[in-house]
Design goal:
This protein is α/β, with parallel strands linked by helices. The chain has seven helices and eight strands. The longest helix has 12 residues.
Length: about 190
Protein backbone atom coordinates (compact mmCIF):
# COMPACT_ATOMS: atom_id res chain seq x y z
CA UNK A 1 0.00 0.00 0.00
CA UNK A 2 1.48 3.40 -0.96
CA UNK A 3 1.96 6.08 1.64
CA UNK A 4 -1.04 8.42 1.96
CA UNK A 5 -0.73 12.20 2.06
CA UNK A 6 -3.67 14.10 3.53
CA UNK A 7 -3.71 17.66 2.17
CA UNK A 8 -5.62 20.14 4.34
CA UNK A 9 -7.59 23.21 3.28
CA UNK A 10 -6.49 26.81 2.77
CA UNK A 11 -6.58 28.17 6.30
CA UNK A 12 -6.41 24.77 7.97
CA UNK A 13 -3.44 22.77 9.24
CA UNK A 14 -2.28 19.27 10.15
CA UNK A 15 -3.75 19.97 13.60
CA UNK A 16 -7.32 20.47 12.37
CA UNK A 17 -9.90 18.06 13.76
CA UNK A 18 -10.59 16.72 10.25
CA UNK A 19 -6.91 16.07 9.49
CA UNK A 20 -6.31 14.41 12.85
CA UNK A 21 -9.49 12.30 12.57
CA UNK A 22 -8.81 11.06 9.04
CA UNK A 23 -5.14 10.36 9.76
CA UNK A 24 -6.01 8.46 12.96
CA UNK A 25 -8.64 6.30 11.23
CA UNK A 26 -6.28 5.48 8.36
CA UNK A 27 -3.45 4.66 10.77
CA UNK A 28 -5.80 2.38 12.74
CA UNK A 29 -6.37 0.54 9.45
CA UNK A 30 -2.61 0.14 9.02
CA UNK A 31 -1.90 2.96 6.58
CA UNK A 32 1.25 5.08 6.59
CA UNK A 33 -0.12 8.66 6.60
CA UNK A 34 1.62 12.02 6.42
CA UNK A 35 -0.17 15.35 6.86
CA UNK A 36 2.21 18.09 5.69
CA UNK A 37 1.85 21.70 6.72
CA UNK A 38 1.14 23.16 3.31
CA UNK A 39 2.09 26.73 4.22
CA UNK A 40 5.57 25.54 5.32
CA UNK A 41 5.26 27.90 8.31
CA UNK A 42 4.79 31.04 6.19
CA UNK A 43 1.05 31.63 5.65
CA UNK A 44 1.59 35.28 4.71
CA UNK A 45 3.52 34.28 1.57
CA UNK A 46 1.42 31.24 0.69
CA UNK A 47 1.20 30.38 -3.02
CA UNK A 48 -0.13 27.45 -5.03
CA UNK A 49 3.34 26.72 -6.40
CA UNK A 50 4.81 26.84 -2.88
CA UNK A 51 2.22 24.36 -1.63
CA UNK A 52 2.91 22.07 -4.59
CA UNK A 53 6.63 22.17 -3.67
CA UNK A 54 5.75 21.09 -0.11
CA UNK A 55 3.81 18.12 -1.53
CA UNK A 56 6.67 17.27 -3.89
CA UNK A 57 9.19 17.39 -1.03
CA UNK A 58 7.05 15.16 1.20
CA UNK A 59 6.21 12.70 -1.60
CA UNK A 60 9.92 12.55 -2.48
CA UNK A 61 9.19 10.91 -5.86
CA UNK A 62 7.78 7.80 -4.18
CA UNK A 63 4.38 6.23 -4.88
CA UNK A 64 1.68 8.03 -2.88
CA UNK A 65 -2.08 8.24 -2.63
CA UNK A 66 -3.55 11.69 -2.02
CA UNK A 67 -6.55 12.76 0.01
CA UNK A 68 -7.32 16.46 -0.33
CA UNK A 69 -9.91 18.62 1.39
CA UNK A 70 -11.06 21.95 -0.08
CA UNK A 71 -7.87 23.75 -1.23
CA UNK A 72 -6.01 20.50 -0.49
CA UNK A 73 -8.35 18.79 -2.97
CA UNK A 74 -7.48 21.33 -5.63
CA UNK A 75 -3.77 20.83 -4.91
CA UNK A 76 -4.15 17.04 -4.98
CA UNK A 77 -5.72 17.22 -8.43
CA UNK A 78 -2.98 19.55 -9.74
CA UNK A 79 -0.22 17.41 -8.27
CA UNK A 80 -1.69 14.10 -9.49
CA UNK A 81 -2.04 15.48 -13.02
CA UNK A 82 1.73 16.04 -13.14
CA UNK A 83 3.05 13.06 -11.17
CA UNK A 84 2.64 9.48 -12.39
CA UNK A 85 3.68 8.12 -8.99
CA UNK A 86 0.27 9.16 -7.58
CA UNK A 87 -1.75 5.95 -7.45
CA UNK A 88 -5.08 7.24 -6.11
CA UNK A 89 -6.76 10.55 -5.40
CA UNK A 90 -9.68 11.22 -3.06
CA UNK A 91 -11.09 14.75 -3.21
CA UNK A 92 -13.29 16.15 -0.44
CA UNK A 93 -15.10 19.30 -1.63
CA UNK A 94 -12.16 20.39 -3.82
CA UNK A 95 -11.77 24.14 -4.28
CA UNK A 96 -11.92 24.09 -8.07
CA UNK A 97 -12.48 27.53 -9.58
CA UNK A 98 -11.53 29.20 -6.28
CA UNK A 99 -9.70 32.05 -8.01
CA UNK A 100 -12.72 32.73 -10.23
CA UNK A 101 -15.03 32.69 -7.20
CA UNK A 102 -12.79 35.17 -5.34
CA UNK A 103 -12.76 37.47 -8.35
CA UNK A 104 -16.52 37.22 -8.75
CA UNK A 105 -17.18 37.99 -5.10
CA UNK A 106 -14.59 40.81 -4.82
CA UNK A 107 -15.04 42.41 -8.22
CA UNK A 108 -12.31 43.32 -10.72
CA UNK A 109 -11.34 46.62 -9.06
CA UNK A 110 -10.69 45.03 -5.66
CA UNK A 111 -8.78 42.14 -7.23
CA UNK A 112 -6.59 44.64 -9.14
CA UNK A 113 -5.98 46.55 -5.89
CA UNK A 114 -5.06 43.28 -4.14
CA UNK A 115 -2.59 42.39 -6.91
CA UNK A 116 -1.05 45.86 -6.86
CA UNK A 117 -0.57 45.82 -3.07
CA UNK A 118 0.63 42.21 -3.00
CA UNK A 119 -1.39 41.29 0.08
CA UNK A 120 -4.91 41.38 1.41
CA UNK A 121 -5.81 42.44 4.96
CA UNK A 122 -8.12 40.28 7.04
CA UNK A 123 -10.50 41.86 9.58
CA UNK A 124 -12.31 39.84 12.23
CA UNK A 125 -15.54 40.86 13.98
CA UNK A 126 -17.34 38.93 16.70
CA UNK A 127 -20.96 40.07 16.41
CA UNK A 128 -21.85 38.08 19.51
CA UNK A 129 -20.19 40.79 21.61
CA UNK A 130 -21.89 43.69 19.80
CA UNK A 131 -25.18 44.91 21.26
CA UNK A 132 -27.01 46.25 18.21
CA UNK A 133 -26.57 47.53 14.64
CA UNK A 134 -25.83 51.08 15.88
CA UNK A 135 -22.89 49.80 17.93
CA UNK A 136 -21.62 47.88 14.89
CA UNK A 137 -21.82 50.99 12.71
CA UNK A 138 -20.11 53.05 15.41
CA UNK A 139 -17.16 50.64 15.14
CA UNK A 140 -16.79 51.66 11.48
CA UNK A 141 -18.38 48.53 9.97
CA UNK A 142 -19.45 50.34 6.79
CA UNK A 143 -15.89 51.64 6.29
CA UNK A 144 -14.43 48.13 6.60
CA UNK A 145 -16.85 46.92 3.91
CA UNK A 146 -15.29 49.38 1.45
CA UNK A 147 -11.78 48.01 2.05
CA UNK A 148 -10.14 45.51 -0.28
CA UNK A 149 -10.05 42.86 2.40
CA UNK A 150 -11.42 39.62 3.73
CA UNK A 151 -13.86 40.30 6.56
CA UNK A 152 -14.74 37.46 8.88
CA UNK A 153 -17.81 38.04 11.03
CA UNK A 154 -18.67 35.47 13.67
CA UNK A 155 -22.35 35.29 14.68
CA UNK A 156 -23.16 37.21 11.47
CA UNK A 157 -26.75 35.99 11.65
CA UNK A 158 -27.22 38.49 14.50
CA UNK A 159 -27.14 41.39 11.98
CA UNK A 160 -27.76 39.85 8.53
CA UNK A 161 -28.98 43.16 7.14
CA UNK A 162 -25.54 44.69 7.70
CA UNK A 163 -23.75 42.22 5.44
CA UNK A 164 -23.27 42.74 1.70
CA UNK A 165 -25.50 40.78 -0.67
CA UNK A 166 -22.49 38.83 -1.99
CA UNK A 167 -21.36 37.64 1.47
CA UNK A 168 -20.41 33.99 1.75
CA UNK A 169 -22.01 32.40 4.79
CA UNK A 170 -20.38 29.48 6.59
CA UNK A 171 -22.26 27.35 9.06
CA UNK A 172 -20.26 25.10 11.39
CA UNK A 173 -22.03 22.05 12.80
CA UNK A 174 -20.73 19.73 15.48
CA UNK A 175 -21.52 16.14 14.51
CA UNK A 176 -22.30 13.31 16.96
CA UNK A 177 -18.84 11.75 16.42
CA UNK A 178 -17.17 15.01 17.49
CA UNK A 179 -16.13 16.03 13.98
CA UNK A 180 -17.33 19.23 12.36
CA UNK A 181 -19.20 19.88 9.16
CA UNK A 182 -18.89 23.21 7.35
CA UNK A 183 -21.67 24.32 5.02
CA UNK A 184 -21.34 27.24 2.63
CA UNK A 185 -24.21 29.47 1.48
CA UNK A 186 -24.58 32.55 -0.70
CA UNK A 187 -27.44 33.73 1.52
CA UNK A 188 -27.98 33.61 5.27
CA UNK A 189 -28.54 30.02 6.47
CA UNK A 190 -32.26 29.41 6.95
CA UNK A 191 -32.82 32.81 5.37
Amino acid sequence: MPRILYLHGFSSSPNSSKARHIAAKLREAGANVDVPRLDAGDFEHLTISGQLRVIEDVAAGEPVALIGSSMGGYLAALYAARHAEVSRVVLLAPAFRFAKRWEESMGPAKVADWRAKGSLPVFHFDFYRIGDEQELLALGWDEYLEETAVIIAEWANKFPGCLPADAIWLEFRLLPDGSREVLSYHRPPNG
